[in-house]
Amino acid sequence: MESQSNSLFHRIRQNYDYFFLISLIFGLMGTILFHRAGMGLNSFLFTIIIVVLFIFITKKLNISFTKWVLFCLITSILLSLSNVLTSSWKLQFLNNIGILLLLDTSLIQLLSERKSLGFFDNIKNILLLPFKAISSIGLIFVEGNRFVKDKKIIKNDKFRNILIGCMIAIPLMVITTALLSSADMLYGKIAKSMFEWLLYRDFYRIIIKIILGTLVCYCLLYGVTKETAVTVKEKTKASPTIGITISSLLLLSYALFCGIQIFYLFAGGIFVLPKEFTYADYARQGFFELLTVTGFNITLILICENVFEENKFLKGILTAITACSYIMIASATYRMILYIGAYHLTFLRLLVLLFLLIDSLLLAGIVLSLYNKTFPLFKYCVVVISICYLIFSFSKPDYYIAKYFLAHTDTNELESEDIYFLTTDLSYDAATLVVPLLEKHNDSRNLYQIDKYCKPLISDTKDIRNYNYSYMKAKKLLKDNLSFNKVD
């Protein structure tokens, strides 16, 4: 009997015109919304369009949305909404990564054959999806040729074959031209001028972006439904002795580290750092140690669940390692608080604190998965990360960074580097605090930096695609401040 995945794969191939149209809409709308445009309302609209396309795809394939897929799609929409509300490029970058991962997860959950996957399998499928899509790129041309031939859209076979040859030859010409250009300087100069003439025309750029968007969408549909028919045999799990040995040695190392934290740092050494450490070195070491330990813990859980036979003693050791990890989280958090107390808040330091919070919650899920084999660890991790990051993203951290900085700094004695930090490192999310302060320090020392900060707000743009609430709020604040209207 044909598997569901192969069935979906063949149904997509059989309905080439429908799914090609879906892909074309994806490429067309992506180009319309993002061509020569920044990040703002277009991100929210494009995510909504993708969700609508998901609905059309599932209706055509007779697939129902699960609660899990709905959660991923709603979360991706909320992240795109955050792009409209914040002007921080750092947040927008992280939001876009989150949107991409959530949409990929939704696509895999909807169209992949195997629905009940373990933690490692889910991660593997997300990582492999781009490569599966790339390997499917030829199918869009093969199926396109078959569709045109079957529907007799181009009746002349010779003309159709010439078109196919041109489509295949264009990328090959780009590659060979690049190689020949490096072999001969004169040829390279001529080729460069020709390509520049083509690529610097908006028309060609738009066409290329539409084609690329269409290819990406269609190849993803092919890639996620194309599974290799391999019969998975039941694996014989190994003896837990190896796992016990590895985890026991790690536990000894962790116990020593945690003992130092308890008897030195948290007790006699509180608020005191060893002389050979700076605050930066101390905080940085704590963070990367924690990151390494978390990786070890996740690896050990995967080994325990997938390789070794179930063993109570092994579970106990892994639980003890998790307990040590919580002590390390406390240590790393304490170090970062010391570091922030000395050098103030930054976006990266807040992100580290968020990571520590998420890590502590994930460890709880890992322990639960040890004692409950049916615990959905992957879904738990996605939900925890999504909720914590959504709160972080919508909170506009740059505002609180500025608020903390000004609360711990004499605003009457700000240096040029302080103005640089407030106007360069922070986005317009903090404008309600920064703009009034700049008025007070609008002198020759800071004029260049203030000009650089204010000019994007003074420039008038009517492109609705770029609409950003944080940016427009800062613009209004600046216009209300008459002294800043003199800035050229």
UniProtKB/TrEMBL annotation:
Keywords: Membrane, Transmembrane, Transmembrane helix. InterPro entries: DUF4153. The chain crosses the membrane at residues 16-34, 40-58, 65-85, 91-111, 123-142, 162-182, 203-224, 244-274, 286-308, 314-338, 350-371, 377-395. Pfam families: DUF4153. This is Putative membrane protein. It comes from Herbinix luporum.
